[in-house]
Amino acid sequence: MSEQVKKPIKITETILRDAHQSLIATRMPTDFMLPILEKMDKVGYHSVECWGGATFDASLRFLKEDPWDRLRKIRDGFKNTKLQMLFRGQNILGYRPYADDVVEYFVQKSISNGIDIIRIFDCLNDLRNLQATVDATNKFKAQEGRGHAQIALSYTLGDAYTLEYWADMAKKIEEMGADSICIKDMAGLLVPYKATELVSAMKSQTKLPIQLHTHYTSGVASMTYLKAVEAGVDVIDTAMSPFALGTSQPATEVMVETFKGTEYDTGFDQNLLAEIADYFRPYRDECLASGLLNPKVMGVDIKTLLYQVPGGMLSNMVSQLKEQNAEDKYYDVLKEIPEVRKDLGEPPLVTPSSQIVGTQAVFNVLLGERYKMATKETKAVLRGEYGQTVKPMSQEVIDKVIPGEERITCRFADTIPNELDKLESEMKEWKQQDEDVLSYALFPQVATDYFKYRQAQQEKVDMTVADGKNGAYPV
Questions:
Q1: How would you classify the pairing of strands 10-13 and 148-154?
Q2: Which residues lie below 8 Å from residue 419, measured CB to CB, with a gap of 6+?
Q3: Hey, is 88 helix, strand or coil?
Q4: Rounded distance, CA 187 to CA 216, Å?
Q5: Contact of 96 with 413, CB cutoff 8 Å
């Protein structure tokens, strides 16, 4: 038998971003990360995901840290490893669509502060909402020689989402000028043998590298990775064991051991990985003791597969029903969710579409009449502000919720005038670095509160005795 061809599987490590976002609400502080970076840099990861997603908001809001400062410090610690971030297309990391000039400036600043790979997704998989980010990354790459645009497709189930659909999307992504593709399975819906079919179908249409990202929520993720790797996937996302499994990713060390001695062998040193795990383990115990890490998120939630609803969306729905003393309506709402999703054009259930569909389903059930009341977000989806859905939306629902209103068929960002100068003038009194404008653009109130806190720290003001209301700060 001839010598087997080596195809080592590449690994993106998520412990500095998605793992702690999924398990402890993105609360890992920068200072805790820094001492272990040198060891992590020696592993040989394809990349380390360390920024974007909810890290930006959580840093400013809860940790009183500058996210840009975090990025620069992490960049200093990784001499040999690429850094990666998650980016929500036109929404960047915020909750509304931004003008193209803000998107371009954010991309430019992210790469120049240390990001190598930008993973870009859209909650409707509307590629028009991703084009500006891809173009901005490619423009920077042409000038500076750095930057990689990866488009992530939000994986979901439904009539519209056939193998042809995914294969066709892969082809379109290559035509858009992206550097790689990610299958982003945010709810752990991709089961092992379907992964074989999906990766094979996409590989038949594109030469771009394909990465797979999933969550352990439904209990199948490690097996899904095994089949995807055998089908030729290029990169998988994993988390160091202390912050793996549950709503996070499969464990790095387990996947490394799984492929050892095969053609997919990563070549990673398990002793080095064990030292890194030893560093994070006491912090995990601390999080469990303080209640920041809830043991509930560590188990398998099979309802995810049964109802095809992400775990976070289910817990959101339960708390909404609890507030209304209507927990007995749980199963009615579960039945209503796929109906609302169909009415809205069958979007993937990922932030923010999952919250929009879930909340509307709760209203429909509690009020006893469908769409008697529609949320402003439901109206925005029906108007086309979030983009194009895979299937047409229900005309009946459109007529009931937004009768006679004009709907948007173009890319919504085309209707937003440039806004960088305006944002700059609104916050200039707080500006200490170019990047502050972007923090303000994404989270105006939260960033302003942080800027005030930062100034007080610099001037050594005791915030506990400061009279914030009247602007009196005793030094």
A1: unpaired
A2: 98, 99, 101, 102, 441
A3: coil
A4: 8
A5: no
- The rounded distance, in Å, linking the Cα atoms of 183 and 197 is 13
Joined together, the tokens standing for residue 319 give 């708390």
Nearest to 240 by CA among 470, 39, 452: 39
Alpha helices (H) along 15-162: 18-24, 30-33, 37-41, 55-58, 67-77, 100-112, 131-144
Whole-angstrom distance, CA of residue 42 vs CA of residue 66: 27
Sign of CA dihedral 389, 392, 396, 398: positive
Cα 126 to Cα 55, 129, 154, 458: the distances in Å are 24, 6, 10, 44
| Tens place of pLDDT per residue across the chain (475 aa) | 446 789 999 999 999 999 999 999 999 999 999 999 999 999 999 999 999 999 999 999 999 999 999 999 999 999 999 999 999 999 999 888 999 999 999 999 999 999 999 999 999 999 999 999 999 999 999 999 999 999 999 999 999 999 999 999 999 999 999 999 999 999 999 999 999 999 999 999 999 999 999 999 999 999 999 999 999 999 999 999 999 999 999 999 999 999 999 999 999 999 999 999 999 999 999 999 999 999 988 999 888 888 888 877 888 888 899 999 999 999 999 999 999 999 999 999 987 899 999 999 999 999 999 999 999 999 999 999 999 999 999 999 999 999 999 999 999 999 999 999 999 999 999 999 999 999 999 999 999 999 999 999 999 877 666 555 554 444 3
Question: Do 366 and 332 form a contact (C-beta atoms < 8 A)?
Answer: no
DSSP assignment of 390-406, as one string?
A: SSPPPHHHHHHHSTT--
* CA 434 distance to own-chain centroid: 25
Q: How far is residue 254 CA from its own chain's centroid?
A: 23
- Identify the DSSP state of 251: B
Tokens of 222: 């490690």
